[in-house]
User: Fold this.
Amino acid sequence: MGELKEDKNFERLLECMARGILVGGSVGAIAGWFFMDIQRALLLGMLVGCIAGLTMKNVRDKRDHEE
Assistant:
C-alpha cells in the first residue's frame, strides 16, 4: 500500500514539474522575443517553471490532505 502512495506522489511530482517547465519555458521564449536574449529568457523561464511546478504540487497535496 505504501508503494502505491509513493508512486502516485512521484507521478504527481513529474506531472507538475513538466507542466511548470513547459509553461515557464514558453513564457520565457515569448519574453525573449520582445525583451531580452532568447536563450537567457528561456532558461530563466524554465527555472521559474520548476519552482511553479513544486508550488502546484504542494497546493494539490494540501488540498487532498484536507479532504
